[in-house]
Amino acid sequence: MTDISPTPAMPAANAARRSFNELPLSLGILATLQQLEYLTMTPIQAASLPIALAGHDLIAQAKTGSGKTAAFALALLTRLNPRRFAVQAMVLCPTRELADQVTQEIRRLARFADNIKIVTLCGGTTMRPQMSSLEHGAHIVVGTPGRIMDHLQRGSLKLDALNTLVLDEADRMLDMGFYDDIAFVSKQCPPDRQTLLFSATYPDGITRLARQFLRKPQEVKLLEQHEGSKIRQRFYEVNHEERLQAVGILLKHYRPVSTLAFCNTKQQCRDLLDVLKSQGFHALTLNGDLEQRERDQVLIQFANRSCSVLVATDLAARGLDISQLEAVINIDITPDPEIHIHRIGRTGRADEAGWALSLCSPTDMPRVAAIAQMMGSEPEWHDLGALKSSKDSPLVPPMATLQILGGRKEKIRPGDVLGALTGEAGFTREQVGKITVNDQSTYVAVVRSIAREAARKLSAGKVKGKTVKVRVLED
Ligand code: ADP
Ligand code: MG
Fold this sequence. Notes:
- The protein is built from 17 helices and 19 strands.
- It is α/β, with parallel strands linked by helices.
- The chain folds into three domains: 5-221, P-loop containing nucleotide triphosphate hydrolases (Rossmann fold), CATH 3.40.50; 231-386, P-loop containing nucleotide triphosphate hydrolases (Rossmann fold, 3-Layer(aba) Sandwich); 399-472, 2-Layer Sandwich (Alpha-Beta Plaits).
- Mean pLDDT is 89; it is low at 1-16.
């Protein structure tokens, strides 16, 4: 790491929880942060925001879920001039889901100024609507490198006013082979822009990328807090045949509301899904074969607590931001101990405890030993047989998801849906969960027991003055 780091990596993990008030942020932004209940900075925010707000280039490394999005969003929003109708900030992300998540987070943080336009540019949808959104003027662009490159080549996206370029999940973009696309896009940006690079890990490619496209970057590294007391890790020995059945036993015993179940292969994901469904669990899977709309629906249902188990491979699950996750179950032990630590780090976030449960066949033992060595702690073995007797009632998610056909295109906002449910339909606020508005659909989580009635009443009444089609999503 020769010429890229004028300052030594900062042990950000040691930073105390500090208030946003000590940063040079506008009153509007500070008020928004209060509303969002972002009361103190996360460690990576505390370490990187002062650098980013001072205008320096930055390389920031911290694990998934540590608050990296707000770290760059607050920096780019601070620099933005809403009265200037040109693209001033651009965020490159590896996938559409991540781009959507980033867009949503920036939108929430940009609430203080309602005239900031953010456009998402990703593949998998037609160019035309994106081109017309750009024609109408955008301040911030979020998207995948390939699609952004497309727009640059067609001349539908101009970057001469760009102040801030963000490379989010840079390691993942490199894994996906986006180096050349990122290089192409970076070369189209004004040379005096600020570049902020965020990454969960630090492979060699990052150094190369930083050398080529960042100017005297400062570096912030949040050392992963292994096996914090919040993650309770247990290993269960199983033989190969009982592996999939064992998952249901764990679920019935621990009864987590949301569980992410990791498989090493896509085939195993399919097999596990079949087993769980036949046992009556509400489970969904995420894999590359799904259409974009199906993927969106899976993620929404899982995040809003209307699906108990999400079965996924590491690739499918990377970067997903699911804040409340009571358990991670490893169906296999991954050969790479770092991946294991990454997997289990998704539970036990914020101040809540989480379970990390791993199924392990005799041939997996050397892998467990490698994990124990890296984590510097002895594995805690438990006996599956001891759990078998539990005869609990079925594990049912607390919520169910209603899909309303109609979304941002119809100018539906979360408040309209909440209003319809709590107004004429007569439900209480407490019976309504997360509301997600996409371009063409709106998804609302409601307490499972009222789902059908709520769907019926919504269809019979009106949302935003219009009759809408509503259905309960099956899982
Ligand atoms: P990362 O990009 O590091 O994976 P995210 O930016 O997606 O993490 O943030 C993870 C979660 O933490 C999000 O749900 C976000 O709303 C929340 N969050 C971010 N910053 C704060 C904060 N300062 N206080 C409370 N919650 C926060
Ligand atoms: Mg992120």
